[in-house]
């Protein structure tokens, strides 16, 4: 049976935990410089812990991109809960399987994350960080209107090498990505 080319994005739930775990682990293995968590750290987590974090809450929503019947990409958007930061949301944990890249999954996930942040009352800005080695990811975010507001040197260490992180934000009051 040929692969279904249709791409869909939806909110993930605990039932998606096995597929989510595999995509997340693939991200850590394929792009270790993109993440502060390692595949070993994440792989040691029990599936029950991963499942418990997938159901949406008022502050956290996990999205999955599906193509050909399978999960090919993930993104988490979370709202800050402290009163002085409640106007902000964050995008974290973005990963698309290498074989699914270039087919719109990343763009669809970012669009879903932006839409979720806009749906939260009072959220006026959306933030994320990208390791300096992740040029394609940075360009994806910039296409959605994110702008670099600063670069943190000496941010992430992998082995003996230290990498900077670019911090980006999207002004939800001005742009419509």
Automatic annotation (TrEMBL):
Domain N-acetyltransferase residues, every copy: 7-169
Cross-referenced SUPFAM superfamilies: Acyl-CoA N-acyltransferases (Nat)
Alphabetical UniProt keywords: Acyltransferase, Transferase
Keyword Transferase attributed: yes
InterPro entries found in the cross-reference section: Acyl_CoA_acyltransferase, Bact_Acetyltransf, GNAT_dom
Keyword Iron-sulfur: no
Record-given protein name: N-acetyltransferase
Lineage: Bacteria, Thermotogati, Deinococcota, Deinococci, Deinococcales
